Amino acid sequence: MTGRFAQVALPLPLATPYTYQIPDTLADRVAAGARVVVPVRGRELIGIVTALEVPAPTVTARDILATPDDEPALTPALLRTVEWMAGYYGAPLGLALKAALPAGLWGSSEVIVEVAAAGRVPGGTGAEVLRWLERKGGSASVGAIGRGMKRSVWDAVDRLARVGAVTLRIEPPDTGGGAVSDRVLALPADRPTLLERKALFGGTPRQRALYEALEQLGGTAPVEHLRTQLGFGTALMRALVARGLARIEEVERARDPFAGEPGTPPPDALSADQQAALAAIEALGPGEGALLFGITGSGKTFVYLEAIRRALEGGKGAIILVPEIGLTPQTVRRVRGMFGDDVAVLHSGLSDGERADAWRALRRGEKRVAVGARSAVFAPIPSLGVMVVDEEHEATYKNGETPRYHARDVAAVRARLEGARLVLGSATPSLESWAQVGERLRVVRLPERAGAGRLPAVSLVDLRTAPKVRGSGAIPWSEALDAAVGGVLARGEQGMLLLNRRGFASFLQCPECGDVPQCPHCSISLTVHQAPPALRCHYCAHEAPLAAACAKCGHAVQQMRGIGTQQLERWLAERFPAARLARMDLDTTSTRWAHHRILGAVERREVDLLIGTQMIAKGLDFPNVTLVGVVDADTALHLPDFRSAERTFQLIAQVAGRAGRGPEGGTVVVQTRQPEHHALRRAAAHDAERFLTEELAQRRSPAYPPAIGLVNLVISGREEVAVGRVAAEVAEWAAGLGQKHDLALTVLGPAPCPLARIQGRWRWHVALKGDGAVLGRVVRYAATRLAGSGEPRVTIDRDPVSLL
Ligand code: ADP
Ligand code: ZN
């Protein structure tokens, strides 16, 4: 049989796309990058056409059933970007496409079968289908017929359609904007006093714990969060409701917190530095890139917004990537202030339907600027002029599942393919980007703060010798930091305190036998929480009671080691009783827009001291913050990962950059036990460039990225022995491959991952080092030979951001 054929990638972990025949009626709509509905094993799925004019397959090809869109969902450049991503990261093309298109565009559609007026009536199942259909009034979906007849009828329907006994009509998947709701547990407005509580909760301490946890979360929290994150059972919640102490409510989710919020207007004029930076960006040729290396508060945002404004004037569109929408409301407001309705904000609060709608508006050119996290790199801007990656050093740009892409690197490839200008912005550039300066990136500097601010003075306090405040117990609280906080409060200014560890204490230890309670599913010690009291695993949310006595030796008293944000908050409340405190960490940001609420309160100056984990270090611009205190700078310095110094430098330099953005200036106090460490010394001196130079030298020997390419093959499974055995096989396979093809490849391992078990899965890894071309070949082989859905599982992580 003659006919034209197309290759269609399906959102499944398949190594190769399937081939389908293009019916004449659809010939003009089946194009590369187009969505099509195709039959697959008795179902109909949405796939993407990846190639046309392909040879006829050896088995009979089935017909493409429908083409839901007027024009291809993916532009040619976007399709090529995704193909690059699949190849580079060793991911199936279908899964790479799945990551690039919003979920709402993949929903399976319904094929409606209608009995045709006159058709040849076949025998067998076909006849049964026709009889069933006629009983139901002559039409039904394939799914409904299958359920009614209790078997798969797709083949029969297909044959009926071919002989003209039925006609098929496709009803596209429902991508309407139906809002989703959350079930929340809420407290009534009037709360019992402490005295009343004693009576109310006398015999029911768990109820009291739940009640107080809710109170801490602002009086309301999703039932799901209370259950999975905080470990409260539904029976407990019901008990509270039955006593009239709380109620269950349905609240509409997917509310867009940015809608109706005024945008921030741009400044009257760019500074001379900003203008020079803008000119340098405009001087880039199409497809070229710049590293906008500007100190914290130097006004990078308005430089790239102005570059985008000019691109829009030239009829082009733009994408702005931010690390996390919830943590960067100010950036979003500035983008909105500049471009108004031309902006689509792609945030996690959108329902699938709303996201699909935003996507379509961009695809049709009704909106020309997309702002969003990682996946916005795939926003379907038809004619892309500028691609911005704000805070390009952030690890959140790396996707945690297949395809394990890094949005910054995908952005660079897409910009080249589209002929768009690439702008990577950071005060603390990644070593990867720094190493590209002079090659693929041109460095553009902003050395001064914009507006009124000055870089704050940073003092390092040596916790080994510095005098501590009496009564601070386990809290590392030096007199220097204490005086600085006291001064800020006395002057009515604001302060931020960073402690990158949530919970109350890092772990519990028996002073007698030294035992530390561990998670039974993960190789990590359990973290102590106080609101509510429990031991909790930060990897799998496993919870155990906070027992008074040691489970091993029975010793009656347990010691808490290492402090967390909850304990710091409690200490500050004691030490500065008049101060208005707010805490921002994973435990207080359960509801979708909790970040927004907390940051809003800081902005309105309803908060004197903001306590938080690394969440508070990201791009915030509060002019009244005059003090930043880093309570313990060493939390990440000794993680067994080659990036631990880089991460520490970035965290400290970024959080320090939150101080002194207003006319009052600012100071930063960093407490550490290693004041001589180069990450801390350079952060204190605001000297990113020296840090980069020193760190780059350290990555040469032993070689680590960016001096060499790295692929981490992670082998995981439930059987410890099998995982170790497969890991050894993988290492042997890689070494053999290197020998056979004479590749300059270094194979490290197999070895257990530093986190040897997560959620009951044992983890081993094999690290491969080599240049890009060598690793490219290895990844290609690995993708076809190793990766798959079997157990133990082998995951390919190219350019990993963490080796833990
Ligand atoms: P960065 O992203 O480089 O840390 P921002 O873009 O947040 O810096 O800018 C820092 C502050 O300087 C913001 O409050 C911003 O409004 C202000 N600012 C930026 N450019 C100008 C300018 N040309 N004139 C006055 N203020 C400016
Ligand atoms: Zn766990």
Biggest sheet overview: 7 strands, parallel
Q: Shape from CA axes?
A: globular
Instruction: List segments where confidence is low: pLDDT < 50 over at least 5 consecutive residues.
Output: 174-179
Strand arrangement across the biggest beta sheet: 13-14-12-15-16-11-17
Q: Can you give the mean pLDDT?
A: 87
Distance between the termini: 55 Å
Helix content: 25-40%
Radius of gyration: 29 Å
- How many separate helices? 23
Portion in beta strands:
15-25%
User: Count the strands?
Assistant: 32
Bound molecules: adenosine-5'-diphosphate, zinc ion
Structural class of the secondary elements?
A: alpha/beta
Fold topology:
Blueprint: E1 5-9, E2 18-21, E3 35-40, E4 43-52, H1 76-89, H2 93-100, E5 110-115, H3 124-135, E6 139-141, H4 142-149, H5 154-162, E7 166-171, E8 181-186, H6 194-200, H7 205-216, E9 220-222, H8 223-228, H9 234-242, E10 247-252, H10 272-282, E11 289-294, H11 300-313, E12 317-321, H12 329-339, E13 343-346, H13 352-363, E14 369-372, E15 384-390, H14 407-418, E16 421-426, H15 431-436, E17 441-446, E18 457-462, H16 479-490, E19 494-498, E20 505-509, E21 527-530, E22 533-536, E23 543-544, E24 559-563, H17 565-575, E25 581-584, H18 594-603, E26 609-612, E27 625-630, H19 644-656, E28 667-672, H20 678-684, H21 688-698, E29 709-717, H22 720-740, E30 746-758, E31 761-770, H23 772-785, E32 793-798
Helix pairs in contact: 1-2, 1-14, 7-9, 10-11, 11-12, 19-20, 20-21
The chain binds adenosine-5'-diphosphate and zinc ion.
Adenosine-5'-diphosphate binds at residues 267, 270-271, 274, 294, 296-302, 450-451, 621.
